[in-house]
Give the backbone structure.
Amino acid sequence: MITIIVRTFVLYFTVLFALRVMGKGELSKMDPFQMVILFMISELASLPIASPDVSLVHGVCAIITLLFLQISISLISLKCTGFKQMVNGVPSILIEKGSLNDREMKRLRISVDDLSQQLRLKNFPSFADVDYAIMEINGDLSVIPVSQKQPLTPADMQLSKAEGHLPVVLVADGVLYRHNLRHAGLTELTLRSKLLELGLPHYDQIYIAFTDENQQLMAYAKDEKGGPRPPSFRPGPQKGAPKDGDL
């Protein structure tokens, strides 16, 4: 029993280390090569746990070898486009200028019903609404609607729109996220002053506090059970109005 627990701990942190080294960008792709690597890592991690006869060192070495292989192929793919296309494949155009690409659909073994279902999931019930449909290398379908079905934007109406700001969480479950203060354009002293105006002098009273795209501070206080209460908010600085610290 102790042996299984120790092996599980060692392999858990080994796999966690491998995934961290692979990076967020690699995990977000989920192309064929990434899927093979993840499946093999999971299989190699489970073998030493389920079979005591399998050496733990051999399992760890195999996972590290896969990690080295993954990083090496990723670096080569950045330098060589042909190698990347050979390993990962290329996107496939299924609909081009509103016309179905029957040859490409047969090559990918995608029926009209399958494509129609994917389009409905993307909120395009009719083929006539689609200008381009592209099957990405990770299996996701990208859809570009015809011009008449594209959402109306302020630029289409020749309207100017004020530039928004990045919404950031400042306090969550009583913990201050100091690294987000800079993104919100606030100091901790300014934040405390604003929270005090909302009747929240202490961080441990706050379920979550954040600034939205208009730099408006919103805060949810904790209730008796530790859940959120209705929000309090303090408007952000208006155009032409002095900001905190300017006076």
User: Anything to note?
Assistant: The beta strands are 92-96, 99-100, 130-135, 141-145, 168-172, 175-176, 206-211, 217-221, 232-234. The longest strand covers residues 130-135. Residues 238-247 have pLDDT under 50 and may be disordered.
